[in-house]
Amino acid sequence: MKLTRVIESAVTGYQFRGRIEPQPDGNVAVLQVKDLKDGGGIRREDLVLIHIAKEVGPQRVRPGDVLFLSRGQRLFATAVLDPPPNTIVPNYFYILRPRPVVLPAYLAWFVNSPKAQAQLRLVHTGTHMPMVSKSDFMQLEIDVPPLNVQENIVALDDLARREQALSDELLSKKRELVEQLCARAASGRAKKDH
């Protein structure tokens, strides 16, 4: 099924006319790539506030939106379940608003899957800052199983990510322990040589 059949709309993020300059008294928060946590979620404390006089309705991120990073080497999607109020994203994101037939977290998972990434790499063009055009992105073929199957896929993927994080932490702790033991052994050996 084409992506166009599972989303209500795809909006390009806000077009800034230069650098995003923080303004402490700003009325809009800007969610950038650096503010996204691995595996989903937002670093709320890092969002930059700016002042925008005009209404930014369509570009305001809503609960349940899926953000797709359309530019750069790393193409990925993330579901935004609880964005801070009055938050926008720059124009290198497409804001996807799924229909009820697809869960936001499933849509993000599918876009990040090897199957979808292979499709996207075929239309990923440019050299300095490669991108996927919105029209090409909307042609993405997506598998849409029943909602209960989508829920199971999302839950399984979440468990796999948590397991990977725990494995990485365990490996890091093992490295620290080995380094400490080696340093102790070297220190003890050096003392015996004196």
Descriptive notes:
The protein is an alpha+beta fold. The protein has 2 domains: 3-142, Alpha-Beta Complex (Adenine-n6-DNA-methyltransferase TaqI, Chain A, domain 2), CATH 3.90.220.20; 145-194. It is 36% helix and 15% strand. The chain contains 4 helices and 7 strands, in the order βββββββαααα. It has helices spanning 104-112, 114-122, 134-137, 147-193; strands at residues 7-12, 28-30, 48-50, 65-69, 76-80, 87-88, 93-98. It has a 4-stranded antiparallel sheet, with helices on one face. Strands 3-2-6 form a 3-stranded mixed sheet, with no helix packed on it. A hairpin with a 6-residue loop joins strand 4 and strand 5 (76-80). The longest helix is centred in the last third of the chain and has 47 residues, at 147-193. It is globular and about 75 Å long. The termini are far apart. The model has no long low-confidence stretch (mean pLDDT 88).
